[in-house]
Amino acid sequence: MKRYIILIFIMAFSVLVFGQNERKHVRSGNKLFFDAVKDTTNIDSVKYVNAETEYRKALNKKPNDLQWNFNLADAIYKQKRFDEAAGKFGEIAEKMTTSEEKARALHNMGNSQLMNSKIDESIDSYKKALRQNPTDLDTKYNLAYAQLLKKKQEEQQKNQDQNKDQNKDQDKQDQNKDQNKDQQDQNKDNQDKQNQDQNKDQQNQDQQQQQQQNKISKENAEQLLQVLQNDEKKIQDKVKKQQAAAAKRTRTEKEW
């Protein structure tokens, strides 16, 4: 009987020692965590890393402790591993038994999503938290802030789409201008070519007219020369006749 009592005492003492060791890690983790939180001028990521290590040591002995898991998720969040923290808070929220505890986990899940630029997901988490605890002012504020960010994001997207459409219209106008310029250049080239062809034709016509005029002038000169030659022959014939008549009269007079 004494042996059983001693055995039970040893087992109870062992459980107590292990329990104290687990809580020792948790207390150490909490101290590191809150020391880092107090220093608002500097983010001491090393203390958060060490706090995470202590929490994990405790959870190795008692993995289902929701409070310690919550503290671990907080330490992960402080190290800006937001996606991992959101997943951890989501798991905790499903296991919490009271509405207030669920709301806290969902609130922190929303914070992790918001810090990871997942605005729609954070809004959904904040709404779920408020269903569990409708009077939580912090969650209401964060929900309003997330909704404001979403509105600004939509406005920016709308402006970007409008600018994109305007750029498309401008590009289309520029393209039309280029096409019109190309058409104008083509028309100008065609007009220049047409003018060149017309000038060339006019020059050819002028040259032909000049050649024709020169030809006519040459023919006229030859005709005029022929007329002059004929007139000169007539004059010479007339002079010869006059000379012959004069000679005849002279001879007649001498005979007299």
Question: Mind explaining what this structure looks like?
Answer:
By secondary structure, the protein is mostly helical. Among the domains are: 1-79, no CATH class; 98-155, Tetratricopeptide repeat domain (Serine Threonine Protein Phosphatase 5, Tetratricopeptide repeat), CATH 1.25.40; 220-256. The chain has helices spanning 2-38, 45-61, 66-78, 82-95, 99-115, 119-132, 137-255. The protein starts with a helix and ends with a helix.
Q: Characterize the biggest β-sheet.
A: none
Number of strands: 0
Shape label: rod-shaped
Q: Report the order of strands and helices.
A: HHHHHHH
Give start-end ranges of low-pLDDT stretches: 1-18, 250-256
Rg calc: 59 Å
Question: Mean pLDDT, nearest integer?
Answer: 78
- Please state roughly what percent of the residues sit in beta strands, choosing from under 5%, 5-15%, 15-25%, 25-35%, 35-45% or over 45%: under 5%
How many helices in DSSP terms? 7
- Fraction in helix: over 70%
Structural class: mainly alpha
N- and C-termini, Cα separation: 219 Å
Key terms:
disordered N terminus; mainly alpha; disordered C terminus; Serine Threonine Protein Phosphatase 5, Tetratricopeptide repeat; 256 residues; 7 helices
How would you summarize this macromolecular structure in one to three sentences?
Helix content is about 90%, strand content about 0%.
